[in-house]
Sequence to fold (177 residues):
Amino acid sequence: MRTPAIYRRLKPSDADIFHALRLEGFRREPRAFRFAPEDEAHLAPATVGARLQRDFVIGAFSAKDSQLIGVGGLAFNDGVKTRHKALLYGMYVKAADRGSGAADEIMKRLIDEARGNVEIVTLTVVSTNLRALRFYERWGFHAYGVEERSAKNANGDYLDETLMALRLNDPSMPGDI
Fold:
């Protein structure tokens, strides 16, 4: 079922709500992210705002109450040899809003932005997060490796991460859209 939402690029003035949702994701889904809440809890609003200024981050807002319900971001590389790539990061939709179409709309907007700026979008996803793996595959990303023991939870539980890529505008490559 599609639930109405409003989508827009987040601005530095959205730093507080973005940061709160990001920390919520880390807390509620400790096996889905390589970061823990304490990794970013200390970040000042100005630091988070600078990230929103630099990166392309889309927010999904509930049409009912204007609350931020989902996010996803693209970080573009500055290096001479790597500026053809972007990193997709931080995809998260609140549990109550999953299945609403919010993740698909966020992804569509991220890919549209990437298409005009880069050739390849990369991401990492915890290998046991099958729902996320299927989602990314549906959008044309393909796995090209696994980083074993990429992260370690406080309880000693290791997380492997699947490395994925989407090649844009190259019909000869797998994962092209």
About this structure: Residues 15-28 form the longest helix (14 residues). The chain has five helices and seven strands. Residues 5-167 form a domain with the Aminopeptidase fold (CATH 3.40.630.30).
